[in-house]
From TrEMBL, chain A:
It comes from Halorientalis pallida. Belongs to the bacterial ring-hydroxylating dioxygenase alpha subunit family. It comes from the Archaea. One of its GO terms (molecular function) is 2 iron, 2 sulfur cluster binding. This is Aromatic ring-hydroxylating dioxygenase subunit alpha. Keywords: 2Fe-2S, Dioxygenase, Iron, Iron-sulfur, Metal-binding, NAD, Oxidoreductase.
Automatic annotation (TrEMBL), chain B:
It comes from Halorientalis pallida. This is Phenylpropionate dioxygenase. It comes from the Archaea. Coiled coil: none annotated. The lineage of its organism: Archaea, Methanobacteriati, Methanobacteriota, Stenosarchaea group, Halobacteria. GO terms for biological process: 3-phenylpropionate catabolic process.
Amino acid sequence: MATERSDPDRTDRLVERTESGLDSGRFPMEIINDEEVYQAELRRVFARAWVYLGHTSEFEEPGDYARRYIGEDPFIVTRDENGEMHAFLDSCMHRGAQFCTAETGNTSHFRCPYHGWTYKNDGTLQGMPHMNEAYQELDEEEIELQEANLATYHGLIFGRIADEGPSLTEYLGDFTWYLDVLFNATEGGLTVVGEPHRWEADYDWKTAADNFSGDSYHVLTTHQASLETKELELGPWEELDDYLEAAYLSCTDSHCAAYYLSEDPDTHMGYPDGIEESMHEDLTPEQRELFARSVFHFGTIFPNTSYIHGIQSGGWGGPWVCLRKWQPRGCGKTETISWWLVPEEFADDESFLDDSHSGWNSLSPAGAFESDDLTVWEGISESSGALTHELRETEGNMQQGMGGMTDLTETVDDPVYGPAETTWQGGYFDERNSRMFYQAWCEMMSGAANPEGER
Amino acid sequence: MSTQRSRPAVDPETRQRVEAFIYRETDLLDTFALEEWLDLLTDDFTLSVPVRASRDPGSEQDEFSSRSYYLREGTERIRERVGRLQKEYAWSENPRSRVRHVVGNVRVLDAEDDELTVSNNQHVFRSYGDKPDHDLLSAQRHTVLRESADGFRIADRTVYLDHTVLNTKNITLPLL
C-alpha cells in the first residue's frame, strides 16, 4: 500500500491497470480525478490527438476568427485573406504576450498590445514599431506564429499540436461512416446558428465524453424528472411502440455512437417535408436508411468532442443537433462549449428554428435535461479524488453487456448499422462504448505510444 | 453629471408600487414559492436568457445573441419547469439551493398604456449542500409589468447575464 506519492511511474502503472481491467469491465476510480494523470493527459492525449476547434460555417468571411483551445492552450482559429484556415497559438513571438482580445471577431491583422508586433491573419509577421531602427538584421521570415496542424472533415475543423501522427481521416477511421450521416446528410451540410452555450463546472472531461459515448442507462435515473413531463404534448415519435426496444449501440476503434431506430423508414429525424430530396448524393443506400429510421443518436469523437441529434426532447422541442466540446480547464474542471447546428436547407426557416432551438435548449445549463447531469458529475469528480480509492486501488464497474450479463441484447451485423460492432437493444444493457472509450484513452496514454522525449 | 435628464416616466406612487412588486416577486423566487410566483405571470409571458459572447472590440454586433438563449420559454413550459423542480429526483435542486437575490437600481425605462418596462440589477447568491463555496450570478433584468385587476402581472422578462462563460453547474428558475 502506497504511503507517499514519490513514484515517477505511477501514471504509467495506472494506465496499465486501466487497460488490464477493461477485459473484465473494471477501471481504477482514481483516474477520474488525479493531478498527475491530468497533466499526462494534456501531453499524451491532447497534444497528440486531433482536437475539435470549430465548424467552417463559423468562419465564412476572410478575417473571421475565434479563440479556441487544444488541451488548455489558447489558439486563434482564422480564415486568412486567401480563404485558408489556420490555428495559431495566442502568444506573440517576441515576448509571449496574448494579442487576441475577444472570443470571436473579424480582423486582417493581430497587433500585440505589449510592443506592437503585428501579424497578418495567416500568421506571418507584418511588422513592428521602429522596425528599421531596431531590427536591421532580423530575419523576418523566421518570425511566424506557432501554428497547429489543421484538417477538416465535412466542416468539422480539427487541430493537432504534434507534427507526427495519422491524418485526420485515418484518425477518424470507420467512424466517418457515421459522421457522414450527420454532418454530410444533406447537400448543404450543417451550419452553426448563433453562439454556443458555455459553462464551467467541477467535473472531469472523461466523465462527459464517456457519458456521450453511449450511456442511455443514466437517462432513466438522472433525467427521470424531465421524462415525466405532465403538461407538455409529446410528439408522435416519442409514442412509438418500439422506441426503447430499438436502441442499439455501435462503436469503432476509438469513437463511439449510440442510435435509436424506428422500424418506420420515414422518420428522417423529424425534419420538415422535403428533407428526402435534399439528401446528399454521396450517401450510400444504407446510410440513407439509417438516417431515415433515426429518432435519436449521440456519440463521442475521441477525446473530447460529442454530439447529440435528437428528434424530440420529451415535449421540450426538436429536432436539433448539439455539438459540444468538453474543454479541460484544469484537473477536475471542465468547460462545456455547446453549439447548435441545423441543416443549411432549414437555416432560414424561422418556425423550424424555433422548435430546433427549444430542443437544443433542453441541453443548456438551464435546460430541463442538462441541469441534472452536472450535479451528478461534480459528485463523481469529488469522490473519485478520494484517497481511499488510491490506497485501496478501488475499481469501478462497466461490465454491462459482457458475457453472461444479459440475454436481452444481441450482436448484429447489418449494413444499415454501418461498419461498427453493434449491439441490438444495447442502449440500456451494454457498456461496450465506455470500454471502447477507455481503451482509446489507454492507447494514447500508454508509454509505448508516446512521442520521443515526452515521458 | 448629465444635464439631460429625461422626465421620470412614472409618478412616485407608481414607482413605489413597482419596487414593492419586484422585491416581493424576487422574494418568492428566493423562498422557492414557485406556485405563487407562477400566479404573477400572464398567459403570454416569455422568459429569455440570451447567450452573451465576447466580441471583437470593433464589432457592431451586440454582445447578447439574437439567436442563442440559455432559456427562452413561455408560460406553459415555465409551469412544467416548476412542477419538475418539485420532484425529489430533480437533482439540480435536490438538495435545494439557498438562493438570495440582492436587487438594486430599480428603474422604470418605459411606460406605455397599461405596461411598464422595468429594469433592475441583481446579484444572485447560491449555496448548495454543505459546501463552503457558492455561485454568484450577476445580471440585469428587463421586466414588462402589465396592470391587471389584481395589480401588476409579469408579461415578459429578459435576463441579461454579466457572464460569457457561466461559473455554475446549472441555472434553475429561482436563480433568474
